[in-house]
Write a structure and sequence with these properties.
The structure is a homohexamer.
Chain A (H helix, E strand, L loop, with lengths): L7 H10 L2 E6 L13 H16 L3 E2 L22 H17 L4 E6 L5 H14 L4 E5 L5 H7 L14 H10 L44 H24 L5
Parallel strand pairs in A: 1-2, 1-3, 3-4
Helix pairs in contact in A: 2-7, 3-4, 6-7
Chain lengths: 245, 245, 245, 245, 245, 245
């Protein structure tokens, strides 16, 4: 069900069975000494695959380039502007609608992409009323996070390469985690951190925003599975109520 | 040497050894009943890997979305506008320069991307004089193609999912070729084909533009290896003459 | 200290004393049968004035036009696109920097403006390093809200013309509240409300998102004063540490 | 009839009676030592109110930010580009049409806004044929000005913070005039003033372009009332001939 | 001194003698039954040549495409948007500065171009401080027009294919005037003509806005020569005062 | 049949007979010591006239400003960006369709314009299905060139101010050729010339890219006449098959 490897003839067959396409989107961004630059890409891609196993859907190639403002001064970060990212997401939606997709499900692994994704979804809402766009960034999991978390959350809810995200990776892409390098480096955020543009290299030298050493596969599994369940539930409900497009 | 899987710490080490980053770029586009939609992605990605084996370079994640005008009416085609594609390529160049890359090598597997890539390269030429941008679309192979080709070339030099491109796939991504479905379907192009916008679905129903059945791994190997040699030669020359950036 | 009513000669005097300019920004948007369309404008404007009383600052004329996507189908909503709103905010910042302002404080009364404001702040961060941009939307008050609130919060944290916002108005602009028309109309939000574009007229006919009848001036006073204290604290800290621009 | 202070329910009632919305638009710009930076805002706003008293119309909040090129080097000037100003004016027109407005009357107090306003009107003319856009900048008063004026007009018809504009303020916003500071400072304009971009700070140090000391309330009243009469006459004629939209 | 016909070697010689380039710009637009669509092109081009005879200057090829909103519904009108026209004028200015031009003199034959030209001049003023941009549309001739005119001027000062413009053509491009078809067709303009977008085909069926039959070569000669004198005087003054760039 | 010199009444007559408009487009660009800067303008204009003699068509004024990246550092080059050039070409197409043109034939004399022209044609293809856009840059002449050429072609097929282009000029605009200055200056192109942005002033000091001294009128005539025949054949075929628009 991977668009990249299908022929157009096979796609025409699949489209008769499902109108859902899933786009995994992440970013390239420093994630501490223990996680790869493509952490958000691995997470989005594998989450998307797990969703696609539960609900018939075509999976688009992972979009590996995201909006990375806060960490753009650190090696390995590649930053696409919101404007350009939004434009590409609209182009993709426009094209897939043309060949029969009616549900465009964006599974996002990188917080910084949320603005561009929402803007793209709204633009498509006007432009193509027949296309329903969904966007998911680990939906409905905050209470599970509260439950499993052992470290203190940062004020403002920031998390990055921390106990939580490292746990996601231990569950979804363990071969890419250097757990022996996972450190605890919770920064003291300045009081105006949320209220004025602040590149993160000003507040952390390791780009870890929490205690990565506390991460476990089990924590990741719990949260990720809850996210998957929520995504599947929402998509299935929409389909069964036939409250279509 | 794959950017996606490195940590930022590892990247900082690599950057001391090489200033070259390779971006494989392709597209999703119908390629007949025997080749996958992502044909141009597979070709660009594997060609890039082969180049990177010969010349120390960091490989960026494949950009799987290209400019697909001519086949945009056929199932599976995803079309990014030239304007947006160019903008993203400039964003990527701007970011990689920031962390030390000085040679931005775009290996393209899809003809339709050439305009956006060249425009991006020229914009970066003005914007970042210290960044040298290269773009390669099977460079310097026309005489090899003439040599190995058994079918007649189409007027205007068009080729798509044909003897040549299928041969590339048989060499670089054979597991994705359904050779039993490879057909000969050379269309009669109208006389004004090159001189007025003409979506290809008007001239072919299979989107094969030649005789795919004549493809062999050997033909692909010969052409692709020549392309690789040319790319490597050009990059090496630049580096050894130290006619740097 | 109101820019509109000063002469340029008076401004030149003031600039010697303060480098802070406050821009109140709101929107025109339906706020139920009991609150005016300009609710967010009144709130931003009066909050700005109260801040300016505590910290020497020049107050710009209220920008009364905001990004109103969710309620754009209801009478009285005026919707400026994020792109245009951001552009204007950058223009204003560029101009005020030119005549000596070094702290551009945007006090926002309308949730929908947050994206454009943050984008503008980031653009100014690159463009004018000497200008420090702050953006405040009732900062640091969530625990006070939890304390005073009698009604249940909506899932997703949505609030609009409800117990809380009506309380703000009862404190800051009581002459514009028709309290006798304040109703309880907490909608049942569909499960995918946060995950797909949903104009609010699909979920509420009164555009009240909570129990407005529970609003009191005291609740508003408590929350608003906390917001003011936070804003003043952050601005003062920055100034006294002379961690200037 | 002030949109800011109405509820959406009240607006729905008003829309049954009138389809006219008036947008006052001015600018922040140095107006000499005797007039406030917001002179053009006060003039537009109060002129709009006087028109609205004579013809049933909804008055939008004053747009206080204009295109200020010529005086952008003088303290207090805030300059919005023509492109952005036009975009916002189109957004506003698009929104008010949606809730029933059919006549969008822009009352402008600042000469520099005329280009953006006309461009916006033309764009709306194409985009929304059902919306009639009017733009007024003291219409049809040149013969009255000639009649009351005691000072010599500047070549090219430039006027700013002069006998005429100060008279407008003495009539419409006298509480904001420091008449004791009103000076005569008629600059000698260079011969190419109209034919090449020339910031006004190059030709005047006070930004007064004439003899402000000759201003009187009576002169202002005469001209302004003529402008109001012309606006009302044009709007009424359109309405009575039912040569609607 | 015509750029089109010079070699680059000859240009390099000329640049040592003059830093002035003149761009004639007109439009294609209906001009009644007696004047060609390219009337504004002929006028601008020949006026430019006459100026260049009096003051050493390089003449660029005529830009024959202008902003034609008012007559865009009449056969033969070609309408370039203000935005695009401005962009091209900036591109031209940027290029000629690069090869040594320091005075970019735009001689305009079409009223509708004035906005784009002024905007372009202002953009170049910021972008290239060393380039001085002049724009002339029959400068300083209103009193001569008043003197020679036999017909009544239209309210608002509109003129098109009328006594005056036809006289210009009789002087500058008589071979293109069909004087036997010159008619008097002064339209009654509606009262709101200046205050709301009004395509001219709504008010005239011949697109003549006055009495073309009264045109004479002598009238044209008088006005055009005055315009030329003014242009030359302004340019010479600038050069002799060496108040250079 | 020249649009510039027709009245709108005459055009209305012509439109009954032909729906074809030809736009000649060239550029200002250094063409060696023997050819004028406007070489591409002369060629496009005269080629267009010859085509119009064979096929009834309206000829638009020559667009003399093109995309000149490679030679933009040499005196006399004027460079319009692809984006702006494309926009103008779309504006022109949109306008001529409005007055009845159905075939918009762009005859291009400058290689660098090809990208913008093709992009404009594609945009018009979507925007105005009833308008058929053709673009010709010496179509179908490569075998004739091979036949007449005495000098070796450059690798990559580059040609500029060389044997071939000079021959075109000797046939179409001989009065503008300084044949006594025609030189042979075939540059050695660096190996990466086609693969990275390279301004031509880096590889040639005369901007001649071949042996201009070998040019003859006869060679030019042969190639140009073949190009004309091809253009006419394609246009006629389209018209006679009535496979209209």
């Amino acid at each position: 069900m991977d668009l990249n490897s299908m022929t157009y003839v096979e796609l025409e067959e699949q489209i008769k069975k499902t109108k859902i396409a899933i786009l995994p989107i992440g970013a390239l961004e420093a994630h501490g000494p223990h996680l790869p630059l493509g952490t958000d890409n691995y997470l989005a891609e594998r989450l998307a695959q797990k969703v696609a196993e539960k609900i018939e859907a075509i999976v688009l190639p992972t979009f590996a380039y995201g909006q990375v403002w806060s960490l753009r001064n650190v090696a390995g970060s590649i930053n696409i502007s919101n404007e350009h990212l939004k434009a590409i997401l609209v182009d993709i939606g426009t094209s897939i609608y043309k060949f029969g997709i009616r549900y465009y499900v964006i599974i996002n692994g990188h917080f910084g992409n949320n603005v561009a994704i929402k803007e793209a979804a709204r633009e498509l809402y006007e432009k193509i009323p027949g296309l329903k766009v969904y966007y998911f960034f680990y939906p409905g999991v905050s209470h599970i996070i509260d439950e499993v978390r052992e470290s203190e959350p940062l004020p403002g809810g920031y998390f990055h390469a921390c106990e939580i995200e490292t746990s996601y990776m231990l569950y979804l892409a363990p071969e890419h985690v250097r757990m022996e390098k996972a450190i605890n480096d919770t920064p003291n955020l300045p009081e105006d951190f949320e209220y004025t543009p602040t590149p993160w290299d000003r507040v952390t030298s390791t780009v870890v925003m929490g205690n990565a050493a506390l991460a476990t596969k089990e924590k990741g599994e719990k949260i990720i599975n809850a996210a998957i369940d929520n995504i599947v539930k929402i998509l299935k409900k929409r389909l069964t109520t036939k409250e279509g497009v």
